[in-house]
Amino acid sequence: MALQTLRLNPGADRRLRGGHLWIYSNEVNTKLTPLKGFSAGEQVVVENDKGKPLGIAYINPNTLICGRLVSRNTQHMLDRSLLVHRLKIALSLREANFSAPCYRLVFGDSDDLPGLVIDRFYDIFVVQVSTAGMEAMLTEILEAINKVFTPKAILLRNDGKMRDMEGLETYVEVAQGDIPDLCPLEENGVSLLAPLQRGQKTGWFYDHRENRARMQQLVGGKRVLDLFSYVGGWGTQALAAGAEHVSCVDASHYALEVAEENARINAAEDRFEGLHGDAFEICKNLIDERQRFDVIVLDPPAFIQKRKDVKNGERAYARMNNFAMRLLNKGGVLVSASCSMHLENQRLVDIIRSNSRELDRTAQIFAQGHQGADHPVHPAIPETEYLKAYFVRILAVS
Questions:
Q1: Is the domain of 172 the same as that of 188?
Q2: Exposure of 148 by Cβ count < 10 A (0-12 exposed, 13-18 middle, 19+ buried)?
Q3: Which residues lie below 8 Å from residue 265, measured CB to CB, with a gap of 6+?
């Protein structure tokens, strides 16, 4: 099938040649190749200003990022065959790193499949499509999954915020098979359950897997507070590692119900407590009650979703870190995390430092965590490196 051509402005090929996959609308020579001449999701051959082919991209003429490269070989457009190939390559990385088939199978740009996320829960797959280009390939994506795997069920969680920007409708739909209310998974040797249809994003957050494994080494016989706990990914693994007691805090009744069920299937419901409400308010109440904990996990949602949110977001991170430090026993451990790509690592360190000094305490960062191997970082796309976690001992000044 003959593809249309998208011509770039002089110098606009520099990022693509450096490994990046995105094309911005102001990089396109709209005199030669007007964007209005393309339909959303269409695949095109991308050329530099001199007409040299750079690869194949899919296009959305209505968005700032108007193109995303899907192949550097103009003979191989994105089709079922290439999707199968890319899935196999993605699978090989996960199988090399994880013993159980529970992981993020596809992480968008980092797996050369921009706009596509696939999470695996044994033989159940959750697919999340965020761009018009990938939406146009949805049938082929499902066919590719069935070619490479033998899925028991596939769920489409196409309800992310980015779809609205791409002009796509949002929906949650079972593409094939039956999806249980709570889907089994395994992480760090712990059996868990995830609400795939009713939960956040794809139902589970695999990205903190390695940080949770490190946390397990620190919680034996300890009192643990899991702030913004969702369904107890951190808290349940603390219980499984021998924590004396875990309090999970979340604003969702349903999330806490699932967290309690996760504690139950690990025979630890008698050491579990769910605290429903706003985490800021609950922390203030716990401080007033003179409650203290040995380990506190602070893994909030992204307080900084856009650059304009940086100032207010940093205030929110600072306030929660302050609360957490005040709730720690002497020598206690704070796991301070952020999934906000716009919060730089050093800024989170500064927030930890300034709060420890404000409280006249000494902070010791003894470990730094990142996203797991199933969330690989694309070296040309900084946005793919977003997760950070600091393990900090908080000491009284001596």
A1: no
A2: middle
A3: 191, 192, 193
Domain that holds residue 9: 4-71
Asked if 178 and 167 count as a contact pair (C-beta separation under 8 A), the reply is no
User: Which residue, of 45, 71, 97, is where some domain finishes?
Assistant: 71
- Candidates 24, 35, 28, 137; CA nearest to 77 is 137
Quick count: other Cβ atoms within 10 Å of Cβ 84?
17
Residue among 46, 40, 42 at smallest CA distance from 20: 46
**Cβ atoms < 10 Å from Cβ of 285:** 12
Its pTM stands at: 0.96
Nearest residue to 352 (alpha-carbon basis) of 386, 328, 387, 317: 317
Can you spell out the DSSP letters for 203-250?
A: S--GGGHHHHHHHHTT-TT-EEEEET-TTTHHHHHHHHTT-SEEEEEE
Backbone phi, psi, residue 217, to 5°: -75, -10
Query: 169: exposed, middle or buried (C-beta count within 10 Å: 0-12, 13-18, 19+)?
Result: exposed
Q: Do 148 and 199 belong together in one domain?
A: no
Please provide the size of the chain in residues.
398
Q: For the segment 221-230, what is each residue's pLDDT rounded down to a tens digit?
A: 999 999 999 9
Residues 321 and 346 placed together within one structural domain of the fold: yes
User: Distance of CA 152 to CAs 64, 103, 142, 146, 155, Å?
Assistant: 38, 16, 12, 10, 10
Annotated active-site residue 339? The verdict is: yes
What pLDDT digit, counting tens, does each position of 253-292 carry?
999 999 999 999 999 999 999 999 999 999 999 999 999 9
Same domain, 349 and 283: yes
Predicted confidence at residue 304, as pLDDT, reads 83
Query: Rounded distance, CA 367 to CA 389, Å?
Result: 8
